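A quick aside before the break. I want you to see a complete sequence-to-structure record at least once, exactly as it would be stored in a machine-readable document. Don't worry about memorizing anything.
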Amino acid sequence: MLQQKVLPLVTLGDHPSAGKNSALEHCDRPVGTMSVYEDRSAEWYQAWLANMRGDRTTTSIVPVIRLLAQQSNCFAVVERGRAMDAMARERGLMDAGELRKHSNFGKGQMAATDYTLEPNIIVGSITDAYNNLVKAVKIYKAQESASPNGHGTGGSMKVN
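That is the input. The structure line, written in tokens, reads:
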């Protein structure tokens, strides 16, 4: 029997891709984790999807953003979309007592997201937009954790 496991954190930056885009901003190591919020009810998304009717393989822009993250090595992408919904269903089955005992599906296994990217309209170059995001994150000084619960003291931006 084939079993499939969905991981809550997909680290793409560790595995460079073939055909890497040399114009893409690159990081020596990831600067944090990123989730992608895709609002499929947005007007621009519906228009884009209608325009892509002939191409049944393209139903989401999230893979494009994941590819940018992979090639730049700037973010580890944290899953918060459809796979997260599947995990919630599994947790519901677990809470209802429907899953086998001693499965490795418990609390405390998910990584937190440092940044959430919400793509709105892709008009120009998505590479330029992504590079600007990475540059902004690189100059941000992360907040210090002031308590064991992770409450921070605030961050700051430096201007070059």
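Two observations worth writing down. The radius of gyration is 18 Å. Residues 1-17 have pLDDT under 50 and may be disordered. We'll return to this after the break.
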